[in-house]
Amino acid sequence: MSSSRVVFKTTAFERPLVTVDVVIFTVMAEQLCVLLVRRPESDGEPYPARWALPGGFVDVDRDASLLACAERKLRDKTGVAAPYLEQLGSWGDAKRDPRGWSSTHAYFALIPQPEAVDASATTTTEWVPCDQAARRRLAFDHNTILSTAIERLRSKVEYTSLPAFLLPEPFTLPQLQRVYEVVLGRPLDKSAFRKRMLDAAYLEEVGMVTGDHGRAAMGYRLRERDQATVFPRTFKSGE
Amino acid sequence: MSSSRVVFKTTAFERPLVTVDVVIFTVMAEQLCVLLVRRPESDGEPYPARWALPGGFVDVDRDASLLACAERKLRDKTGVAAPYLEQLGSWGDAKRDPRGWSSTHAYFALIPQPEAVDASATTTTEWVPCDQAARRRLAFDHNTILSTAIERLRSKVEYTSLPAFLLPEPFTLPQLQRVYEVVLGRPLDKSAFRKRMLDAAYLEEVGMVTGDHGRAAMGYRLRERDQATVFPRTFKSGE
Q1: How far apart are the first and last CA of chain A?
Q2: Which end of chain B lies in a sparser environment, N or C, as judged by fewer CB atoms within 10 Å?
Q3: Which residue is closest to B96 within chain A, CA to CA?
Q4: Helix (H, G, I), strand (E, B) or coil at A165
């Protein structure tokens, strides 16, 4: 079939608006944080001046795919490529956007602590601890999308290497443990954590680095940065 | 904010095509099957006469939401409402549909063995065993969507009550075990299966029914039909 010679009929229906939103997580000051952007105040914009997740319309001329669109939004807001970007789900209905029937494809991204991130607190972007962000009245259905993302991340932390994507490399095992604890919201036993991480064999040693309090410690990085490792079992309570 | 008084600016971008596709599973003749529909042969239709997953454009005038659209497609093709319908993911890019930039929201549905289903094999719809369906060259990226759905279903079977949604109620424990075995693709130990199902406490007894070979057996139904029960652990190998 040569599509260049064929004229395809297309839909007579009005097309929905199509957007991509990205829930961008990091850890700052031992808190799981999410990037919010303030919507423009101008007339004719829905939810003016309200905080929202970064996102916007798919641009059919620029975006080769939904994932490429999510990567573009992420790069525009943070200046970085995410080491981890996963599709979260989609939300679409007649009422979520006052401009008309709209569907959004939501992604979530994990990026290392934003020393290297352009978006520090400004008037239009802000890293907000997740529990605070969840209490704000965000634009559209972004509260629902955010809470779904937090739930997904927390559930995956139980059995994957995901939190390692929140750290700049190399990291030490105590630094990795703290990130797990921050995302899980509870302390973990040090020796069980160390055994579990090393047994899972998803880290590789990169030599001694300066760890906490200036002490030398083994530095690690992820063996494979293109996927999360799934552990054979979840953390037991008290482990 | 009264949206009726405000004129919202909308996008100047060309809007992508938006579709919903539904992977509808059932079990027939001890095989996991999926419903395929044959695309029209007429000129101007992409992938003419090719088999595809049921689906089509979101109709902004009829569909209140993506889920409502999925329910409508399912009802149109099978005449039934699905006891279980879950969002699978979305696929969108510039090339998957020759009519233009398109994104589809894919769902998967589980329905009981289709005694009561309108769609038996016709020239335009057919229940196809999943392994055979996977070998056909389906329209669009439907092979990818189908394989993702099979993988999701199989992974969830390990730790949820999902296969029970593939049975008409009431069902016996041997019937339920067979559906688990069909989806998992391997036999399960009878006494371990019985203990596990009853321990999970997601079934309720409805009294004696006529089971296999005309023998009386306890009939069961799902305690809650609106959600899958998640078991505390997966099936062990050999269990």
Answers
A1: 58
A2: N
A3: A65
A4: helix
Amino acid at B201: A
What average pLDDT does the segment A147-176 reach?
Answer: 91
Rounded to a whole number of angstroms, the distance from the CA of B59 to the nearest CA of chain A is 6
Predicted local distance difference test score (pLDDT) of residue A236 = 56
Rounded mean pLDDT, A83-107: 95
Provide the residue count of chain B.
239
Residue A76 to residue B84: CA distance in whole angstroms: 39
Q: What is the pLDDT of residues A4-58, one digit of tens each?
A: 456 777 666 789 999 999 999 999 989 999 999 999 888 788 999 999 999 999 9
Task: State which H helix or E strand residue B174 sits in.
Answer: helix B173-184
List, as one string, the DSSP characters of A51-69. EE-SEEE--TTT-SBHHHH
Query: What pLDDT is attached to residue B237?
Result: 52
Please give the share of chain A, as a percent, with pLDDT higher than 70.
86
Residue keyed to tokens 């609106």: B226
Q: From CA B151, how far away is CA B146, in angstroms rounded? A: 9
Contact residues, chain B to chain A, C-beta under 8 Å: 1, 3, 6-11, 13-18, 43-47, 57-61, 63-66, 68, 87, 89-94, 98-101, 103, 105
Two tokens, residue B179? 């559906």
Q: Does domain A158-222 have CATH number 3.40.190.10?
A: no
Domain boundaries, chain B: 17-156, 160-222
Report the CATH fold assignment for B160-222. Arc Repressor Mutant, subunit A (1.10.10)
Residue A3: pLDDT band with limits 50, 70, 90: very low
Residue B220: predicted pLDDT = 95
Distance CA B79, CA A109 (A): 40
Top-level class of domain B17-156 = alpha beta
ipTM of predicted complex = 0.87
Give contacts of A99 with chain B, Cβ < 8 Å: 8-10
pLDDT at B4 > cutoff 60: no
What value does the mean pLDDT take over residues B230-238? 57
Cβ distance A17 to B7 less than 8 Å, yes or no, reads no
Any residues with CB less than 8 A from the CB of A239 and at least 6 apart, and which? Answer: A188, A189, A192, A193, A196
Across the interface, of B45, B59, B64, the residue whose CB is closest to A93 is B64
Query: Which of the two residues, A201 and B187, has the higher pLDDT score?
Result: B187
State residue B30 phi and psi, 5-degree precision: 60, 30
Query: What is the mean pLDDT of the segment spanning A131-147?
Result: 97
Residues of B within 8 A of A18 (CB-CB) are 15-16, 18, 92, 103
| Closest CA relative to residue B50, chosen from B119, B111, B141, B130 | B141
